[in-house]
Every structure is written in C-alpha cells, then in structure tokens.
Description:
Layout: H1 7-20, H2 35-38, E1 46-51, E2 56-60, E3 66-67, H3 72-83, H4 86-90, H5 106-110, H6 121-132, H7 138-150, E4 156-157, H8 159-167, H9 170-181, H10 189-200, E5 202-204, H11 206-212, H12 232-245, H13 251-257, E6 262-264, E7 269-274, E8 278-283, H14 294-307
Antiparallel strand pairs: 1-2, 1-8, 3-5, 4-5, 6-7, 7-8
The chain binds glutamine (GLN).
Amino acid sequence: MPEPFDRHQLQPLLDRIAAAAPRHFGEGEVADYIPALAEVAPDQFGIAVCDINGKVWRAGAADTAFSIQSISKVLNLVIAMQRLDEPDIWTRVGREPSGHAFNSMAQLEEEKGVPRNPFINAGAVLVCELLVSRIMSIHWMMREQARRLAGNPAINFDDRVARSEMDHKARNAALAYLMKAYGNLHSEVNDVLDVYFHGCALAMSCSDVARAFAFLANGGVNPQDGQAVVTPQQTRQLNALLLTCGLYDAAGDFAWRVGLPGKSGVGGGIVAIVPGQMSICVWSPRLDSYGNSVAGLRALESLVEGLGVAPLG
Ligand code: GLN
C-alpha cells in the first residue's frame, strides 16, 4: 500500500497553517447567543491531526480546551447507534440535509416534528431524548465516552457553559416542545435539554477531538485502545451523514471546498475525517453566518490542499 501522506511534510505544513491563521482574526463573530461562549477570547487558533495509528501532530493552541458544542451531536449519535435498534432511531429522525440553519423552526413545523437529520439542533435534541429515556446514567456515559475515545481522563463538562445554555434555552426548548406537540418526543423537555447542553458543554482541545474521532478514519476502531466503537458499516454511514449534513446549510459548500466528512460547533471547532488516513480538528472561535469557524475552514482548505488528500477523487 502506498504511503497515504507524507508524514515528514505534515508538521511543517501545520506550523505554516497556524502561522497564517491570524490573517483571518477579526473576520466573523464569536457565538454570543450563549453568553458564556461570548467571553472566549476570539483570536485564537489550534489544529491537530491524529493518524490511524493514534499518532498526533499539533500546532498553535492545539491543547487549549474549548466548548465542543455541536461536535457532541456525533458522539451522542454514536451512543444511540451502539445501544438502540436502527428503527428506534431512524423512524424518529431523518438522514437528509436540511438546507436550513441549524436552529431553524420552519422545516420542523412543516415536516410535523420529524427533524431532517441528527446534526441540526432538533435532531440532536431528539437523539438526546432517545438516550435519556433509556439510559439512567447518560451524563456519566457521555463523559466516559469522550474520555475513553480521546484517551484523556481529565475531560469534563464546563458547567458554566451548560448553565448558560439552559438559561438561554428558549429556541431549543421551542424545538423540543414542537416535537412533543407532534408526538415525536415524550420525556420532560428540561431533562432532554440538560443532556443536550451537557454534551455541548464538553470541554476538549483540538488534540482531544482529533483523537476522539480517529475511529471514523479507522473503520470504527479507536486506535488509542484497539476497541471497536462502531461497525465498519456504521462508520461509513456516520461519515456519509457528516459529509451531507455535518455543516448544516453550508454542507454543500464545505464538501466543495474541503471535500471531507466534517462536523462544526459554535464553539469554533470543526472536526474532519479523511477515511483510512486521519482525523483533523481545527479551532478558532470567530464564526461565519452559518455558525462555522472562519479561520478553521480556511485552515482545513489549506491542509487538504497541502497534503493532497482527496477521498472524493
Ligand atoms: N449549543 C448550541 C445550540 O444549541 C449548539 C449549536 C451548534 O454548535 N451549532 O445552539
């Protein structure tokens, strides 16, 4: 098998990308609809790459913890796919790109309380209801999963962020109540949101996130400990969902510019997968109008170009 990418080239490339990132400082805004996130210093940048042997390369603030926000939606879906039968999930939430903002109400009303996919807020809240209604210790399990996948026992929830989200829950609560009104959500809305907000409030660094997602580049097996997280088929399915739905109504543009399965969060993180090769995490808090990191997107474009990785051909 040919060397998939030149390992010697990777560290200098990451260093160059980190050095170029400040050019985009000042572009975009931090997410201020969650007050605790508005306090994060906006002009920061980190990048980490984890290969399928678990080796990590890093540059910039790769070890600074940030709020992973919607990146947690993938980790929650993984728990659901591990524990639930397929129809229990996919009769309640779809698998199509939404073409709408991540927190939009309009489509959910039109489609009678069935969210388009598990990565928009409504779909992710729905997944949290599936989990909270079946798993007693779901908070504990979410944190343990993040720690185990990243190989970092120090990972924790940022309780201030979780509280801040609960204090400003109106839109997510509205989505949950709409699903309840249509009979697609049964648990207490606050119990469901508490799980959802805690997932969003997991504090992880680029190195943590890159390691935690390496199983998606490695046929479902976590290279940290050799454990199968999901099956090879589920790995393909998750990567397909990430490619089509991971960046919301900018998923098409992300596929065009970067060409990888990916997931963004309003904390400024983006994780991307090069199947069979590596997982990548970039972080920079300023966001574009879609809620995706401006400097992070630029960095991913440069990395893909610099390494010549192109799983789509
Ligand atoms: N916690 C955020 C919210 O519910 C997550 C959104 C995101 O990261 N896109 O709005």
